[in-house]
Specification:
Blueprint: H1 16-22, H2 25-33, E1 51-55, E2 61-64, E3 68-69, E4 77-78, E5 86-91, E6 98-103, E7 109-114, E8 124-127, E9 132-136
Antiparallel strand pairs: 1-2, 1-9, 3-4, 4-8, 5-6, 6-7, 7-8
Bound molecules: zinc ion (ZN).
Zinc ion binds near residues 58, 105 and 108.
């Protein structure tokens, strides 16, 4: 959370080739080719410990476990990102527009946000698990990737 407010000055820009060399293929495809993982495929669906979910590409903290909930979709779901952690844009890949969101620091694609989430926000941030890493509260957050 401490990192997110500084992210305008901390944008991380790498080419797709650089990211492809750094990341496991499945994570690269979701983060930088806007692929979607199969529902139910992520171990993070079951992750219920206290902690933070950080971007798997640049390690910016994106979600607090306090905002995670079981949506029944098969994707890790949150009702709120950390402040300034994600940016959104509208995609028209299927017939109706959907709002996709990206890590505010590296631009990595995380998932889509819908308006059928629980209170207090009513939002459902439907995230690809492979685009996140869980860091338990007791552990140090990783240094941001440079
Ligand atoms: Zn990132």
């Amino acid at each position: 959370m401490a990192f997110a407010k500084e992210n305008d000055a901390m944008q991380l820009v790498k080419s797709k080739a650089e990211w492809a060399a750094l990341l496991p293929p499945a994570a690269y495809r979701v983060l930088f080719e806007e692929d979607t993982e199969h529902p139910g495929s992520s171990l993070l669906n079951e992750e219920k410990r206290d902690g933070n979910f950080v971007c798997a590409a640049c390690f910016l903290p994106l979600f607090d476990s306090k905002a995670k909930y079981e949506s029944g979709t098969g994707w890790p779901s949150f009702w709120q990102p950390l402040p300034n952690a994600v940016t959104t844009k509208t995609d028209f890949k299927i017939l109706y527009p959907r709002t996709e969101y990206h890590c505010a620091r590296c631009g990595g694609h995380q998932g889509h946000v819908f308006n059928d989430g629980p209170k207090p926000t009513g939002k459902r941030y439907c995230n690809n698990g492979v685009a996140l890493q869980f860091v338990a509260r007791a552990n140090r957050l990783p240094e941001l990737r440079t």
